[in-house]
Amino acid sequence: MNSEPKKTKKELNPNVSVDCVIFGFDLNQLYVLLIDSGNTEGYQQSRMAVPGDLIFDTENLDEAARRVLKELTGIENIYLEQIGAFGDPNRIGKKESDRKWLESIRAQPEARVITVAYYSLVKMPNFNPKASSFAKSAGWAPITEINDLAFDHYEILESALEQLKRKIKIQPIGFNLLPEKFTLSQLHKLYECILGKDLDKRNFRRKILNLDILTNLEEKQIGVPHKPSQLFKFNEENYEKLSLEGFDNFGF
Amino acid sequence: MNSEPKKTKKELNPNVSVDCVIFGFDLNQLYVLLIDSGNTEGYQQSRMAVPGDLIFDTENLDEAARRVLKELTGIENIYLEQIGAFGDPNRIGKKESDRKWLESIRAQPEARVITVAYYSLVKMPNFNPKASSFAKSAGWAPITEINDLAFDHYEILESALEQLKRKIKIQPIGFNLLPEKFTLSQLHKLYECILGKDLDKRNFRRKILNLDILTNLEEKQIGVPHKPSQLFKFNEENYEKLSLEGFDNFGF
Asked: What is the DSSP string of A132-162?
């Protein structure tokens, strides 16, 4: 226990935090950016979490999310979208390892903390996390291998993934995640990774081509150990239009 | 200024509130449930707001939203969906009338408050608001006549409306808002009210019928002063299915 509150010059708000779920894609699978928030006395195991921390009273929520992500992982300049607030009264105090950690780091470890969660999806190789602040390490974990996280972070991760799944039903995805020239198989793989299930290839091709966001480059892959596939790029104008309007399938 | 904090037995969290945007539909237009949060000394004009208040430290956010809505307006048993958190550091302190009001009612009027917003859409005549707690009055205001609200509530209202517009692009709407037997014109009107624009009638009919959520009752309106229209009801099974899955137009 701390007799004196640990506060920076700017006041940390003891009741509100932000958490960032950053998904990464490397053409093969989906990853999540995790930090090891550090051992605490008597708890030797690592304590994996998504990057998050209390907000300053002078910053808005979006600013707080960007700052916290940068402080803990060095990652910046990515678009973070708010998922919503998580406010179970016991969300951070259920596990003893969480309580010990809070006591070791927070000025008011008993305070109730509501967190506002954000998410993003980035091209993984472009972002090399570097741990700092209370993060002992930071790195990309394959989503399929994550089964437990600090606090309610696993629940927040699930919620972020649901949001991402909903989003790709009404907006195109892939720009900035694939090479400039890509194959339909690569795009197909991205959708399969996000949705977490196999998608019929023929149906996928038909549907994605119907969106009119792809330009057939009339050229094929070079130097691949299999029959080279047709290369495509995104039609930026149409992609942008659908991103703004959504697929708008119902047509209003 | 208050020398002694006004607190109930349960502790109010000074930094987190909930706000509820309740849309009502009466077959003709869209309304919003507003309260007059009361005059404060030197401010004679009424102070319209959406129902909202600080949360208790013992309740989760959904519970807080339901409690606050009931306390201020008597309205209960409606499904509230979270929109997200609003956390501009100056969101409640910009206007002098807001600051005066906070001083008159809050134990810590200077505290920064992040709010978590919720929304719902209900059949208006079924819900008669009754003001209580600090609400001096509560009632339905036509959305087209609202142009200013307390704090950042106008911004929250706009955000809720955007959410509602996005929702009706991917999920059916109308159940519990229309009579059991309704005409396509009535459903058309509902969509126009939410989207705030005219929709081509013929296109609307074609699209809504394509969703396969309507059953043609093979009967017509009785006792109307115009040519009676065909009556429909929702096919509950298909409606439910699309509500869960979304229109899923991209087909995954």
From this structure: -TT-SEEEEEEGGG----STTHHHHHHHHHH
The CATH number of whichever domain residue A91 belongs to comes to 3.90.79.10
Within this chain, do residues B53 and B124 fall inside the same structural domain, yes or no?
yes
**Chain-centre distance of CA B246, in angstroms?**
21
Structure tokens at B206: 């074609």
Question: Which structural domain range is residue A137 located in?
Answer: 12-168
Q: How far apart are CA A229 and CA A101, in angstroms?
A: 51
Query: How many domains does chain A contain in total?
Result: 2
Q: What is the CATH number of the domain that holds A200?
A: 1.10.10.10
A129: burial class by Cβ within 10 Å (0-12, 13-18, 19+)? buried
On whether any CB of chain B is under 8 Å from the CB of A166, the answer is yes
Q: Which residue has the tokens 């059953």?
A: B215
Look up tokens 């659908």; give the residue.
A242
Looking at the structure, do residues B152 and B192 belong to the same domain, yes or no?
no
Q: Measured between CA atoms, how close is A205 to chain B, in angstroms?
A: 11
B58 and B133 part of one domain:
yes
- What pTM was estimated for this model as a whole? 0.90
Sequence-separated (6 or more) residues with CB below 8 Å from residue B76: B66, B69, B70
Tokens at A64, concatenated: 């707080």
Chain B (77-106) residues lying within 8 Å, Cβ to Cβ, of chain A: 82-89
CB pairs under 8 A between A and B: 109
**Tokens of residue A226, six digits:** 């299999």
Residue type, A21: V
What does the pLDDT look like over A56-111, one tens digit per residue?
999 999 999 999 999 999 999 999 999 999 999 999 988 888 999 999 899 999 99
